[in-house]
Amino acid sequence: MLNGFSFSLFSPPLPMKNQVQFSPPLRPLLRGLLLPAVVACLQTNPALAHVHATTQTVLERTVTVQVEGQSIKAILGQLAKQANIRFVYSQQLVGADRKVTVRAQNQPLASVLDEIFAPSKIEYEINHDRIVLRLPAKTTSANDSGSSSLAPEAVPVTGKVVDAKGAGLPGVTVLVKGTTTGTSTGPDGSFSIQAPENSVLVFSFVGYTRQELPVTGAASNLTVTLAENTQDLNDVVVIGYGTARKSDLTGAVASVSSAQLTQVATSDPVQALQGRVSGVEVTSNSGQPGSGTRIRVRGVGTINNSDPLYVVDGVQTSDIGFLLPADIESTEILKDASATAIYGSRGANGVVLITTKHGKAGATQFNLTGYTGFQQIRRELPLTTAAQYATLVTEAYTNDGKQLPDYGPQLQNAIATNAEGTDYQKLLTQKGLITNYSLSASGGTEQNRYLVSGSYFQQNGIIKNSGFRKFVIRVNDDVVLTKHIKAGVAAIFTNNNQTGSGDGQGGSQPYTVLQYALQINPILNPFGPNGTYTEDVITRNTLNVARLVDEQKYNKIQNNNLFSSSYLDVSLFKGLSFRSTFGINYFNNHPKTYQPQYYIGPFDQRAQSALIETRSENVSWVWSNYFNYNKTFGDNSNLSFTLGQEAQRGYGNGISITAYNVPLDASLQYASASRSTGNVVRSSQYDGGLLSYFGRANYNFRDRYLLTGTLRFDQTSKFLGPVRTGTFPSVGAAWNISNENFLKDVSYVSVLKLRASYGQVGNQNAAPNYGYASVANNNQIYVFNGTPAPGLAITQINNPDLKWETAVTTDVGVDAEFFNNKLTFTADYFERRTQDMIALLPVPDYVGQAPASANVGALRNRGLELALNYRNAVGKLQYNVGVNFTKINNVVTSLGGGNAIAAGNVLPQIGNTTLTDVGREIAFYYGLQAQGVFHNQAEIDSYKNAAGALVQPGAKPGDVRYQDTNGDGQITASDNTYLGSGTPSFTYGASLNLNYGGFDFRMLLYGVQGAEAINGGAFNLSKSADFVGVWSNFYANRLDRWTPSNPNSNQPRVTATDTNGNDKFSSRYVENASYLRARNMEIGYTLPQALLGKVQVKGARVFASVDNVFTITKYTGYDPEISTVANYNNPLSYGVDYGNYPQARTYRLGFNVQF
């Protein structure tokens, strides 16, 4: 390079002998003569007769460039290689050392050059395979020969370019169509340009759809809104320990943008993923505020822990509850082994990569967003009134010839007065306020970029005395230390406060507060004449709901989370870089429940108060160090390597105390204030670590043939000896068919890629921290000489060979884009075989201990994923439609010879309702098959076995008829059979986005088809007889029960003596839980810049939104979106509705302002 001038002829690198350097005395002469002479020689070439055709051919060649902060000289070198052309230019003229960011995927060369040179007004002229870069020729004056007086007069055009939310977009290229005259927008999105009348301005920006604006005259204060182009934004995606072009992926990776995550009103970023991605099932644990969400990537992969791994800014963690959706820039979900194997023993259930928002260079910009609204219960269950309830109970006693119980007069009075009674659903529920505000400030220079934000979220539940508050403070700073070294640090502090307990526990505590409200009879008022609580003498053993709701204010959970991450990037030499990241996560949890002493009556009392308080602390850290090497060859092939090492450690402790006779006074509600000697104290602790080495190699041959190989070695403290070390390999390959010559001229095919992958990953979280050790229980009593003494006994034998589960995954997929990327399509077929699944291995009876955990099980998931998206514009209307579909077949293939696993105990009177066995999916429903009711005595008499005996001898007309499944002539537990499961046949989602002028509309749908659910509430509400002398309320449809005057009904009769077993667990309680839910609808308006400029606001958008707009379902419970409540992570109870806190409908008004 020469001082002030250099001549560059860019093509594939020339040998040194062809490079000429000139001595300083010649530089002025060369500066003035050499370049014009070269240009003149090129222009006098006889071949210029064909320059137009040649120009068009050269400029239409497609190139791919993904660079950030590189010099124009280096970028032109890449373009020269890809397009097989040469650039001729003055380095001073074009600013060759100026660094720019360019991201283009299979774009015409002309489009890329426009983006690079429009701000500099550089023109280019083509001769065959040479492009000469130069300043535009000066305008010829009217006095010169060849006058241009007939050319249109240039007029001033000024305005601002904003995004859909009204935020100014800096760096947008503004170009006069058909010319190289242009400019770019400033830091606030403003622009000014001289453009000929009747010309067209073209606005283009990476990540946004290009827009054209006709110039009819001078104009000022224009507002140009660019719509987000999600295809461009997703061209580069985050993968494990790096980034990659989407076109280079051989694995199954799905992306979700920040705008999509913030569409739904939630504090949980996982819940915001629902309906967005094929192969990903998201289910709310509960509608209770702050309850969390369950996510399953490609189905349930084990009978143990199926949670995916989360990675936030390169740091692995087991939860992302410390984030808000607004904190996230992008989300990538890695689904197959080619994508997840680099995470080894933690990647079997998929990996969710989170990139949080960071500062951007420029003047400090403030962003204020917020919304407020209210929530309400979507529907109330149709229950009987007091008179209807009394009629059914009275009839039950009459049917069996029994006298009414002691509360008979109250029943008769309710019937006589046609009493409505108490609506306990209205008593319990409320309209709950929901609000969310977030303020961020970001800016800085290219050498130091920062972001500071604070957020507040509050949600009052639809059940009284339940709610959730969340505070989040985020800080991050990215610094360029030297030309080759970058560093950054980020910290997130979160404080959560949850109140109330709306979720049931299953087993001995099966009911939520809401379920209690459904069961209690409507005859009695919960309040006495003087406002005191009354005892329910009819539905005995049911608590006074009004008192129970009031008690929820004493149930509190508070936790704090500090998540910090840092990184150091070092560019060692061309193509080789080193990155070190360190992250630490501190979490403390403080649940506190106070149960006051009270007495309402003998059936509703608490003899002594109780305080249950737990405090726990958990710390985990991850330190990753890895090298990335990237080499591009002259034939446009590329080879890259990643090689690294990682160490992780997690440790924690907790203590829990149950203290009795603690004062009601809030200032004295601590354990030492207890006046009891029977307090119970428990403690726990753990410590574990993971040491890993990993590597990945990618080879890209001319953007056509792609090969990826990954290998990871993990060594964990969870296991012993040689089984604590595992190797996890994968291989993936892809063929970019659209880059083949035979498809180059097929204009409607933008991308067509086939890919396949195979590999294995692990699931160490399927095992407890000390699963290899024997389990001892200290709740043992030994008697010596008649005196009891506390003791210790081993209750489960150890298994030193216990190791992690392994998932072997095969995936075949296709990615396609048509019509200039307007239509995109992705399809994947996969198989995941879980081996060494941890299950209980039976031991001989003489051992006298529980079965031991062993790697004896196996599971197989096969599935199909489809995703389709179409975007286009009709005039000013821009629209985007997306749909996705997932079908998964889940089968248990081995339990190691052990017995089938029974679970799903809804009520002690019912017992287990699910079974997990070989040959079926996890947790299928197992019980009697009901076949309607006996409509008359003749049907009972005709239902006989081979010996002529009645199959159901205790039945009467109106009783349930059961299928004799095994054909032995009697109805017993041996007739239990498959009744369906919570595993759906398929799930689907759909989205619609519309933009017209300043208005926008969004809609998100989510559906589940072919799933069944066990309606736990129906065991009481659909009952035929009382449960242990307790008559709870009824579904209103029980009024259509069988009676002599209604003999064709399929609803069983009511009876006080159930000799037939009408209320056994059977298909009566298994319901169709398929549903289609409008998850969100939102309409917004972006205020015009002409209005905002008067108040110094850069952008503003207001919106109105509704969540859970409608749900189409046949399920009779509150909500078909079933979790297992207390057993959130227990797949063995999947689909059992213990009494879910339902999802609320939410109405919101919100805004977004930038200034």
TrEMBL record:
<protein>
    <submittedName>
        <fullName>TonB-dependent receptor</fullName>
    </submittedName>
</protein>
<dbReference type="InterPro" id="IPR012910">
    <property type="entry name" value="Plug_dom"/>
</dbReference>
<dbReference type="InterPro" id="IPR039426">
    <property type="entry name" value="TonB-dep_rcpt-like"/>
</dbReference>
<keyword id="KW-0406">Ion transport</keyword>
<dbReference type="GO" id="GO:0009279">
    <property type="term" value="C:cell outer membrane"/>
</dbReference>
<feature type="domain" description="Secretin/TonB short N-terminal">
    <location>
        <begin position="85"/>
        <end position="136"/>
    </location>
</feature>
<keyword id="KW-0408">Iron</keyword>
<dbReference type="InterPro" id="IPR000531">
    <property type="entry name" value="Beta-barrel_TonB"/>
</dbReference>
<dbReference type="InterPro" id="IPR036942">
    <property type="entry name" value="Beta-barrel_TonB_sf"/>
</dbReference>
<dbReference type="InterPro" id="IPR023997">
    <property type="entry name" value="TonB-dep_OMP_SusC/RagA_CS"/>
</dbReference>
<dbReference type="InterPro" id="IPR008969">
    <property type="entry name" value="CarboxyPept-like_regulatory"/>
</dbReference>
<feature type="region of interest" description="Disordered">
    <location>
        <begin position="1043"/>
        <end position="1062"/>
    </location>
</feature>
<keyword id="KW-0675">Receptor</keyword>
<keyword id="KW-0410">Iron transport</keyword>
<keyword id="KW-0813">Transport</keyword>
<dbReference type="Pfam" id="PF00593">
    <property type="entry name" value="TonB_dep_Rec_b-barrel"/>
</dbReference>
<dbReference type="GO" id="GO:0006826">
    <property type="term" value="P:iron ion transport"/>
</dbReference>
<dbReference type="InterPro" id="IPR037066">
    <property type="entry name" value="Plug_dom_sf"/>
</dbReference>
<dbReference type="Pfam" id="PF07660">
    <property type="entry name" value="STN"/>
</dbReference>
<keyword id="KW-0472">Membrane</keyword>
<keyword id="KW-1134">Transmembrane beta strand</keyword>
<keyword id="KW-0998">Cell outer membrane</keyword>
<dbReference type="Pfam" id="PF13715">
    <property type="entry name" value="CarbopepD_reg_2"/>
</dbReference>
<dbReference type="InterPro" id="IPR023996">
    <property type="entry name" value="TonB-dep_OMP_SusC/RagA"/>
</dbReference>
<keyword id="KW-0812">Transmembrane</keyword>
<comment type="similarity">
    <text>Belongs to the TonB-dependent receptor family.</text>
</comment>
<dbReference type="Pfam" id="PF07715">
    <property type="entry name" value="Plug"/>
</dbReference>
<dbReference type="InterPro" id="IPR011662">
    <property type="entry name" value="Secretin/TonB_short_N"/>
</dbReference>
<keyword id="KW-0798">TonB box</keyword>
